[in-house]
Amino acid sequence: MKATPVIHAGNFQKGRDWAAAAGLALLINLLLFAALPAVKLPPAPAAEPYRQPGPVTVTRLRPSRPLPAPAPLVKPSVPEKKPEATAPARSVPAVKKVPAVSPEPVETTRPDSGAETTPEAPPVPAGPQVFDAMDLDSPLVPVFRKPPVYPAHAKRRNIQGWVTVSFLVDAKGRVTDVTVTESDPESIFDDSVIQCVSGWRFKPGTIAGRPVVTKVTTTIRFELKADE
């Protein structure tokens, strides 16, 4: 046997009601859409033209009440210092006056004019005048001038140097007052130079034909030769 579907009358009635409601709603929407063009909206208000703001005036208002004057500065009152009580001055006993004693006059006696007096010492005679070599009329002439001895310790160490020496040549041609003024190296050749120069002899220089004392300054060099 074939199965035949059974359609209930109640379900069919519900479908018809739903279709009728949907058709009614569609009809209402169509009517509203058709009526929209007929509705006139009010025109939009016209925009006002732009106005440039005018100049701004600033008015300075004065205060209605005057400002109160500043209060005067009040200096702090300094309390007056009370005078300190001072102790009463002690009375000083009166000093008895002592009579001044005047010294007795001393008698002075003048020496007799005939008394002997101590003779004054004679003045010390001045030394001979010293002249420079450029002041001479005739120059100094060496008579004996032996060279200095090269110190052995300086020769062993290959030390070379020089000595500047000054001295006086008296009126007889002898050398005195030998003094080393400068040397390099110091104190290496000084003694050899002093001993050597002290034995030199000269023919004295003259001024106006008279021999005079002359000051001389010379430099003696110590140099090693190749064969030494």
UniProtKB/TrEMBL annotation:
Pfam families: TonB_C. SUPFAM superfamilies: TolA/TonB C-terminal domain. Its main location: membrane. GO terms for biological process: protein transport; siderophore transport; transmembrane transport. Coiled coil: none annotated. Keywords: Cell inner membrane, Cell membrane, Membrane, Protein transport, Transmembrane, Transmembrane helix, Transport. Residues 43-124 are annotated as: Disordered. GO terms for cellular component: outer membrane-bounded periplasmic space; plasma membrane. One of its GO terms (molecular function) is energy transducer activity. The chain crosses the membrane at residues 18-39. It is found in: Cell inner membrane. Residues 135-228 form the TonB C-terminal domain. It is a single-pass membrane protein. Residues 87-106 have a biased composition (Low complexity). InterPro entries: TonB (IPR003538), TonB-dependent_transducer (IPR051045), TonB/TolA_C (IPR006260), TonB_C (IPR037682). Belongs to the TonB family. This is TonB family protein. It comes from Desulfosudis oleivorans (strain DSM 6200 / JCM 39069 / Hxd3).
